[in-house]
Fold these 3 entries.
Entry 1:
Amino acid sequence: MERDTLCKAERLCSKLQIEKLFSGGSRSFSVYPLRVVFMPVKREEGALASILISVSKRRFKRAVKRNRVKRQVREAYRKNKHELLGFLNERTEGMAIAFIYLADGLVPTGEIERKMKIILARIMEKPV
């Protein structure tokens, strides 16, 4: 598996895991314009960390804008995930992470990338 891609195994698709992530036992914090919810999970084949990106329909009525924001967040994660994956590789468990977009408008890609670096560093600082 190439490290610079974001494959299907790295996406959080399991309804059971998503429910568990939002029901409790997880940690969360905000780095505007993103809120992050994360929790350790049993390591599965393929990915050390699986992600979910959520953009509210209430904030962006048009799917074009919602998809653009998701693309920006996905790209920022893809470019900066290496340290997190290295950190998780040393541990016994994987991680489920949800990124929730909070801003009411579009944010430049550079700013999202800067915030993503901060987020990933904070996740490594205080694992659950």
Note: The mean pLDDT is 91.
Entry 2:
Amino acid sequence: MAAYYEQIRGLVDGGVDVLLIETIFDTLNAKAAIFAAKKFFRENPGKKKEVMISGTITDASGRTLSGQTLDAFYISIAHADPLSVGVNCALGAKEMRQHVEELSQIASCYVSAYPNAGLPNAMGEYEEEPVQTASFLNDWAKEGFVNIVGGCCGTTPDHIREIATTVRGVRPREVATKTRGLEETQSV
């Protein structure tokens, strides 16, 4: 927690707009980072930033490296009231789809997804072309699964450019929000 606190202070003092707690293979680490962020913001009320959280599903079982299901991961971090929660890394978009869909059904905040450019080949290189990655993310956007998209390992500026072009104009996922005890749906 102390190390996360120091990192958060440096990032906020450096001018970040948002904090991303990312690639969490152990939810206890995510919870330590969340605790550090809440402590920092409590002690520095004029410096509060939104927090985004993204975890890594490591295989087709839909579990994190420490064996937690996506649902359990979300429940474990939901108390942070994040701006968004998402999945990234470890898998290419083709393999991530079912997990992104699942997260979109349980999350009460924005959903992010930024997959690898496919799975690495025997030489550790990523071969998925920008148009392929963008096609997967466009599908997720059209299905209403995501609010924020991007790329992780193996993605290049060309991948990001193609993703942005492909999803431009697609209506983002609707998020059910609670306002003064009333539930309403908003499109963001």
Note: Helices lie at 2-13, 27-43, 70-77, 93-106, 130-143, 157-167.
Entry 3:
Amino acid sequence: MSIKKISKVRVRRAPEAARDNILAAAENLLVERGPLALKLADVATASGVANASVIHHFGSIDGLHAALMERMVAQLIADVLAIADQGGEREDQQEAVFHALFDVFEKRGASRLAAWLELTGEWRRMTHIRDAVRDVVMKRASFGDVTPQQAEDLVLISVAMAMGVGLFGHSLAELMGKPEDRTRALATEVLRIFHAARRAQ
């Protein structure tokens, strides 16, 4: 009785679907194990493709890191714009935006990836983010209660706070004997006050 060797069949995807598959696998690795797990071999294995396929789509592992950050920011911005388009009470919209922002940077690992990109100098690759953030600024300013400059300030402080919470919010709270969500709650409270102050100017 002979034993037939079963070869693993690779699934051939369209270029955009292949990129999305690799980025989705990379994001899962980021959440589970942090940015140090975003190595060429690990990402290729997790996405079920050859190392060469990752290089083909992103040019290098650094290119993959930048593309993943852009993907996460693009999704966040899409979510924020969708919240704004839903209408409703301004305070409810604001709370929904805060929730989406902190979830991306804290729970999905965007803060750790952003810090990694900053430390390696690869943040310069993310030129698309500038235009995407501008869309959020203009949308926020269109409400009429803040100027474009004030809207930029709101985006800057909101992202900076979310980054800080995502990087060491849990650790700092634990060191001080506080519940792990305490830092996020305080940061959200600070943002509410800051947003209210900007609107009152």
Note: The chain has two domains: 12-59, 69-200.
